[in-house]
Amino acid sequence: MLKPAALWRYSIFNMVLIVLLAGWFWQQNQPVSIPEAPLPANGKLNCVSYAPYYGKGETPFIATTVASKARIDRDLQLLSQRFDCVRTYSVSQGLDYVPEAASKLGLKVLLGAWIGYVKQENDTEFNRAIDLANQYPDTVKGLIIGNEVLLRKEQTEEVMLAYLQEAQKRTEVPVTYADVWEFWLKHPRMEQGVDYITVHVLPYWEDDPQDIDNALHHAEEVMGTMAKTFTKPLFIGETGWPSVGKHRNASVPSLVNQASYLRQFLVLADQKGWHYNLIEAVDQPWKRDLEGTVGGFWGLYDTDLQPKFEFKGPVAERNDGWMPLCWGFAGLVLFLAITVGTRERSLPALIGMGSLGLLTGATAYVQWGYLQAACRDLTEWSVLIGITLVGIVALLNLPSILARGQNKLGHTLLFVLVMAGLITSFLLITKMSFIPRDFQLNPAVGHVLYLLDGRYRDFPLALYALPVLQYSIGLALLGSLQRTSFGRYRKLNVFAVILALISLIIEPLNTHALLWLGLVLLLAFASWPRKGARN
Length: 535
Prior knowledge:
Layout: H1 4-28, E1 48-49, H2 69-79, E2 85-87, H3 98-105, E3 108-113, H4 119-135, E4 140-147, H5 149-152, H6 157-170, E5 175-180, H7 181-186, E6 197-200, H8 215-229, E7 234-239, H9 255-272, E8 276-278, H10 288-291, H11 323-341, H12 347-374, H13 378-396, H14 398-404, H15 408-429, H16 443-452, H17 461-478, H18 489-506, H19 511-527
Parallel strand pairs: 1-2, 2-3, 3-4, 4-5, 5-6, 6-7, 7-8
């Protein structure tokens, strides 16, 4: 039986966590005032990237995926209310209908021809794009031959110049090529083949990621450098900010940051006279397979075609309503029932376990949102749900520990958490974000690292935080933190701490990396073996 003083300490600890979690929910749901963007008289912005692959399981990597004419008509009708133009990246899989659909709405089109590895496919795309540009010269205001082909190293500069020069011969529509600004600087000869230069300016994706406060200054510097280097007109072919995903050093995806960047960009574009295309119209879940969570959340509209924010008025990061309270109440009832079932019915025990239940329920709500955003395939769903369930079972085991002291199940669950944390720390530093975007690897090695892809992997703080806090600080306050005789914990924990520390050294301004290091240290504290423990 635990002493009342220990139970009261534990209850106060949980109450503090409740206040902190409630404060976080409150802060995330508060509208934030953001400078408003000057809109043209018709209220429409220049242009936006459009791809129709936002439905479940839809991806351009499956050849049989074809966007219906009805969907394109519906999508463009929606976008025509906010934009004067749409940019496409291909003319296959039904996208060759976009110029026709746009012409009915008075929309202009920046028509893209996708150029990849395979010459036959490239030639088919190229020829179809030329035909459409000539068929709809009043609608297609620009023909973009290739998107970041040199960045991906799928074709050479000579091949791309040949395509561009051929396009200029076969159409009167202005011809351009699109790539990130560094690759324009690396391939200045490309200017010879274009009527204007389409440059991508994405502060989040820089090799030196930019925080939201410096992002616009960075964009201005990039455009200044480009203007000094090239003589032909400049067009910003992609710029934007993600609303969800991995922190990259001080660069933080969030809805408020997305709204802030885009609004302030529009102010700067108006002052500088820039022409631009925003990325992108609708969230693209399939991009998570390439870029992790963040890849799927660059849209101005979600996958239900609802606008994420308006260009006027305050913006709130979340809109949770009563859901956290409902989930928390369910957890409260469950944990009180379990506690009563253990015949531990003292007031401090009921308060301690009831508050734990409230925390568990509200945290499960956050975890479910994280899983929906982060899981890309069946493997990740299985692994991350597994980690989540281990954490929840660990919390459900606490009433038993409260009544009977530490037990074998508690040790087993702690071991699983330590091993999961160790593996996660390893994955987080594999192919980390410090690797330049043009860095090349042996294909076999590259494939293995792509499977691990720490560059795009989130810090799963929501899955670990509460179980780790409870099994370290919580049990210590209860006086139930019993040291194990399993000596190998020393090496496992040292290795895990070193890996977590590397993550922070690589990205010292990444608050998620700092918090992850804190959780790993708490796991080490909770599982550190007693003196004399054998390996």
